[in-house]
C-alpha cells in the first residue's frame, strides 16, 4: 500500500467489543500469568561470562530446541531481512508456505529490506517474484523508497515498468508523495498529474485520489486539491475501496486535509440531509450570530483558511454520507495535530452523528471522540459520552481509556484521581497502570515506583514496574534498573523488563541481560532487540528452526 500522510493501527471489526485496554493489557496478563513465576534466584545471571557472544548464540540454539511451538512467524523472517539475510528469509518463506504460496510474506520482506536500507536486495527479490500482480505490488512499494533515498531516476524507471494499469496510479502517486515530502513540489505536481492522467481511463482509486489531495495540499495547489477532493466525495469514487486492507478511509483523509486547513464546509455538507443543506449558506454574514445553546460559545468552529478549498463545494445529495467509520477515521487522523477549537468542532459533529446512529461500528467513533476530548482536557464530557452511548458492560473499560489519555497528555494528577474513582477493579487497575507508565515516561520515577508498589495484584504490579525499569535505564541508573527488574515476580514480565534494558546497555551488559531474558522466557523475548549487538541472532534461530521443517516429498 502506498505511503500516506495519515496512519492508524487497523483494529479488526471483531474487536468492537474488546476495547483496546483488554487487548493490550488483559490478554497480556492472561498469557504471562500462564508462564508462571520466575525462580527465586537471579536466573541466567552467570550464563554469559564477560559477555562472550558465542555463548549467547549457543543459548539461542538451546532455547529454540526446547521451544515446542516451532514455525516461522513473519516477524522472524522480517528480522532476517533487516539483518542482511534476505535470501535466507525468502528461501524460508517459500519452504514453509502453503498451497497459496508465500505471496504477501515476500512482499513484506521486500518492504522490510527496503526500510533497512537494502534497496538493491529488495529490488532483486521483487524482480524474482513470478506472480505478475505480486511483482507489480513489490515494484510499487520500492518506487517511493528509491525516491526517498535520492535515486529519483531509478524510482521513475520502476514506476514505468509497472505492468498492470490498476497499479499505475498508485505507483506515480506514491512517487509524487515521496517528492513532496522531500520538498520538491514541482516534481511532486508533475508526477501527481501523471498519476491522475493514468487513472482517467477507468474507475479512479479513492485511495490514490486521497493521496493526490495530500500532494496538492503540500504543493500549495488549493484549487486542484479541492477538485480532487470532490472526486473522492463523488458516488463513483468509493468503488473498489477495501476497508479490510486497513488504513484510513480515503474520504476521511481528504476531510482531514481540509479540516487542518480550517475548512469544515465539505464535512458539514456531507453530514447534512439534502433538505437541511438547502438552508446552509457558506458565506454567512459575519454580523449575524447563529443561535447557540448554553455552553456552545466556548466551542466555536475555527475560522476557515481564506486560501484553501474554496472551490467545488460538494452536493450532499450526490455524495456518500459520512458514517461512523468515516467520522472515526477523520477524528483519528487529526487528533495529533488539531488545535483545541478544531478538536471541539469535530467532537460536536461526531456527537451529532452518534445521536443519529448512522452507519456501522459506532463504538469506533465513540472511542475516537472520547479520546480526542480527553486529550484536550474535556474528560468530564468524554465520561458523559461514554455513559450516554456505551453499553453498561463496556463503560468501565472506556473510562480506563479516558484516564490513560488524560495521563498521556500530561495531567497525571487528575488521571490518578479519575482512575481511583472507577468502580470496576480491573478497569481501575488498567487505568492506574497507564498513569504509572506516563509518570515513568516523564521522568517522575519515584512517584511511578511508589504508585506501582501500591498494586495488590502481582501481575499488575509487575506490568507497572516494567515501565519504571525502562525509565531508570533511560536515566542511566542501570544498577537500580536491574535490581528492580529482579523483583518482578512473573517470568514473562521479568523477561520483558530485561529485554527493555538490552536496548539501552553497552554490548557486554546487553548480552548478559539478553541471556537472562532467554533463560526466563525463550528466544522470542529478545530477538528484536538483539539485532544491533548480535546480527547473527535471527539467522541462528532460523537455522535451528529450519531443522524441524520436513523435506518436501518428491512425486
Return the string of H and E elements.
Answer: HHHHHHHHHHHHHHHHHHHHHHHHHHHHH
Question: Helix content range of the residues, please?
Answer: 55-70%
Largest sheet: none
- The average pLDDT is 81
Describe this structure in words.
The protein has 555 residues and is mainly alpha-helical. It is built from 29 helices and no strands. Helix 7 runs parallel beside helix 9, helix 11 (206-219) packs antiparallel against helix 12 and helix 21 packs antiparallel against helix 22.
Short synopsis of the structure:
The chain contains 29 helices and no strands. It has helices at 20-34, 53-66, 74-82, 86-96, 104-115, 119-128, 132-148, 152-161, 165-181, 185-199, 206-219, 222-233, 250-260, 265-271, 274-277, 324-335, 340-356, 362-375, 379-389, 395-408, 412-421, 425-441, 445-452, 458-474, 478-485, 491-502, 507-521, 527-530, 537-546.
How is this fold's topology laid out?
Layout: H1 20-34, H2 53-66, H3 74-82, H4 86-96, H5 104-115, H6 119-128, H7 132-148, H8 152-161, H9 165-181, H10 185-199, H11 206-219, H12 222-233, H13 250-260, H14 265-271, H15 274-277, H16 324-335, H17 340-356, H18 362-375, H19 379-389, H20 395-408, H21 412-421, H22 425-441, H23 445-452, H24 458-474, H25 478-485, H26 491-502, H27 507-521, H28 527-530, H29 537-546
Q: Which terms summarize this structure?
A:
single chain; 555 residues; mainly alpha; 29 helices; 63% helix; disordered N terminus
Amino acid at each position: 500500500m502506498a505511503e500516506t500522510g495519515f496512519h492508524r493501527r487497523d483494529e479488526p471489526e471483531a474487536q468492537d467489543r474488546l476495547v483496546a485496554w483488554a487487548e493490550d493489557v488483559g490478554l497480556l496478563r492472561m498469557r504471562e500469568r500462564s508462564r508462571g513465576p520466575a525462580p527465586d534466584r537471579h536466573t541466567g545471571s552467570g550464563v554469559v561470562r564477560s559477555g562472550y557472544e558465542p555463548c549467547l548464540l549457543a543459548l539461542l540454539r538451546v532455547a529454540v530446541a526446547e521451544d515446542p511451538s516451532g514455525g516461522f512467524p513473519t516477524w522472524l523472517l522480517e528480522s532476517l531481512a533487516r539483518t542482511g539475510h534476505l535470501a535466507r528469509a525468502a528461501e524460508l518463506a517459500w519452504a514453509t508456505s502453503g498451497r497459496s504460496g508465500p505471496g504477501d510474506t515476500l512482499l513484506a520482506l521486500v518492504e522490510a529490506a527496503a526500510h533497512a536500507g537494502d534497496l538493491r536486495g529488495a529490488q532483486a527479490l521483487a524482480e524474482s517474484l513470478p506472480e505478475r500482480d505480486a511483482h507489480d505490488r513489490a515494484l510499487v512499494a520500492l518506487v517511493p523508497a528509491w525516491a526517498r533515498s535520492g535515486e529519483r531516476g531509478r524510482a521513475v524507471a520502476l514506476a514505468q515498468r509497472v505492468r498492470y494499469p490498476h497499479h499505475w496510479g498508485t505507483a506515480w502517486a506514491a512517487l509524487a508523495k515521496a517528492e513532496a515530502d522531500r520538498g520538491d513540489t514541482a516534481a511532486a505536481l508533475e508526477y501527481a498529474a501523471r498519476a491522475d492522467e493514468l487513472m482517467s481511463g477507468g474507475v479512479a482509486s479513492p485511495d490514490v485520489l486521497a493521496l493526490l489531495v495530500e500532494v496538492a495540499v503540500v504543493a500549495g495547489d488549493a484549487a486542484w486539491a479541492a477538485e480532487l477532493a470532490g472526486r473522492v466525495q463523488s458516488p463513483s469514487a468509493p468503488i473498489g475501496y477495501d476497508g479490510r486492507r486497513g488504513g484510513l478511509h480515503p474520504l476521511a483523509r481528504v476531510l482531514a486535509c481540509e479540516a487542518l486547513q480550517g475548512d469544515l464546509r465539505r464535512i458539514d455538507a456531507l453530514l447534512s440531509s439534502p433538505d437541511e443543506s438547502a438552508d446552509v449558506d457558506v458565506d454567512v454574514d459575519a454580523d449575524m450570530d447563529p443561535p447557540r445553546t448554553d455552553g456552545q460559545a466556548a466551542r466555536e468552529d475555527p475560522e476557515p483558511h481564506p486560501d484553501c478549498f474554496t472551490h467545488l463545494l460538494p452536493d450532499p445529495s450526490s455524495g456518500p454520507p459520512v458514517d461512523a467509520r468515516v467520522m472515526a477515521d477523520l477524528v483519528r487522523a487529526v487528533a495529533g495535530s488539531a488545535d483545541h477549537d478544531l478538536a471541539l468542532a469535530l467532537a460536536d459533529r461526531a456527537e451529532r452523528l452518534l445521536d443519529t446512529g448512522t452507519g456501522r461500528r459506532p463504538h469506533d467513533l465513540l472511542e475516537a471522540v472520547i479520546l480526542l476530548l480527553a486529550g484536550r482536557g474535556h474528560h468530564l464530557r468524554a465520561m458523559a459520552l461514554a455513559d450516554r452511548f456505551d453499553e453498561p458492560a463496556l463503560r468501565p473499560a472506556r473510562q480506563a481509556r479516558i484516564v490513560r489519555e488524560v495521563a498521556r497528555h500530561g495531567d497525571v494528577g487528575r488521571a490518578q484521581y479519575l482512575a481511583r474513582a472507577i468502580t470496576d477493579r480491573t478497569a481501575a487497575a488498567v487505568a492506574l497502570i497507564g498513569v504509572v507508565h506516563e509518570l515513568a515516561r516523564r521522568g517522575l520515577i519515584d512517584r511511578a515506583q511508589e504508585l506501582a508498589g501500591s498494586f495488590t495484584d502481582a501481575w499488575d504490579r509487575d506490568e507497572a514496574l516494567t515501565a519504571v525499569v525502562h525509565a531508570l535505564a533511560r536515566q542511566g541508573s542501570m544498577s537500580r534498573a536491574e535490581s528492580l527488574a529482579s523483583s518482578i515476580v512473573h517470568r514473562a514480565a521479568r523477561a520483558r523488563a530485561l529485554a527493555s534494558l538490552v536496548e539501552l546497555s553497552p554490548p557486554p551488559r546487553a548480552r548478559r541481560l539478553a541471556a537472562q531474558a532467554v533463560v526466563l522466557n525463550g528466544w522470542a523475548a529478545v530477538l528484536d532487540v538483539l539485532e544491533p549487538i548480535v546480527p547473527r541472532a535471527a539467522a541462528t534461530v532460523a537455522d535451528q528452526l529450519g531443522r524441524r521443517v520436513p523435506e518436501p516429498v518428491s512425486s
